[in-house]
User: Fold this.
Amino acid sequence: MLYKALTAILVILSCILLYTTYRVVTGEPGDVRSSFGLYSDDGQSRELLERFTREREERLQPEEPPRQEPVRPMQEVARSLEVPWDIAFLPNSGFLVTERPGRVVLFDEQGNRAVIHAENVIQRGEAGLLGMVLHPNFTRNRYVYLYKTVTSGGRTVNEVNRYTFTGSSLTNKTLIVGNIPGAVYHDGGRLEFGPDRKLYIATGDASNDQLAQDITSLAGKILRVNDDGTIPEDNPFSENPFVYAYGLRNVQGMAWDTRGRMFATDHGPSASTFCCRDELNFIQKGKNYGWPEITADETREGMETPYLHSGTFTTWAPASLAFASGSLWFGGLRGAALYEVRFEEGEPVLHEHFKNEYGRIRTVRTGPDGMLYFMTSNRDGRGQPKVGDDRIFKVDPRMFRVTEQNTQ
Ligand SMILES: [Ca+2]
Assistant:
């Protein structure tokens, strides 16, 4: 009896051993090897290890990704302005707007509006009170920078001044850069602080195209200074230490993408017999952007061709540049559109929004809320103002992709 029982136990144990050996050898589902700690250095084991690691890492991630906010509707934020040229967002949700005839208008957080500052400016053609930017440390120092066209020593010039914002006025005017050649046309005018916290100043050729290639002139350039107007040590030209890039015709838009790459728009010679060729340029320190020697796709040793241009039949008249939602955006004056440059598989592709819906569009800026703010320029002498012009709108930059998805 005892002998039979022992035999039975032995048979059962042998069966278990045989089954286990079979599972180990075939690697059947259930993976007995892992329970036995029997990992061998084959592909399947590595795959299992990787899967385990991946699953563990996934468990360490937040339970759910943050919910995407719904795309917000388009909204008018201001109206009845006269050639608004720039907008600056205050920390308390109010904002400042420059009007080209010489006014700075404050819109406070309650929506009240007041002219808080007036500048004597030359108001002819494209000249006047133009760009505005807040210091990166505005919350602490309250500095506001303005770009304007004035008469100095009998000449038309542009200058950049710094002011202190008191909450209801601009005081302590300090000259930052003066004697930038000015004219009725081609005054540039955009101000931006770069990611390096230097002040970049976009100028025009002041209707004298030869100045763009003349490194000693401040015309047809992108200038770069410290916040007090002194020269950064790493600017590229000893002949003219203000200059960062040159060979430009009339730059009114500068922006940096999230990788810190700098871009600038430039107005092409739209009004001449050699039409159009508006530009979007990838800006690098010390480079020559070709005006007036080369335009559009033309190349020449030591000169840069544009990243994108409008061709010889189309005019954008690009008057600004902003980066939002992975794209570059600019307003088109003659083009009467909001332009978007998307990077599709690394290539810049132009998309046109609101064509002829709002008339001439000048400045586009990204607000602290991630919305795009754009302003019309229908009262600048070249447009056809409608009731309510000029106006400022805000639009969710994601709106255009949603619209496209819905119409596909
Ligand atoms: Ca060029």
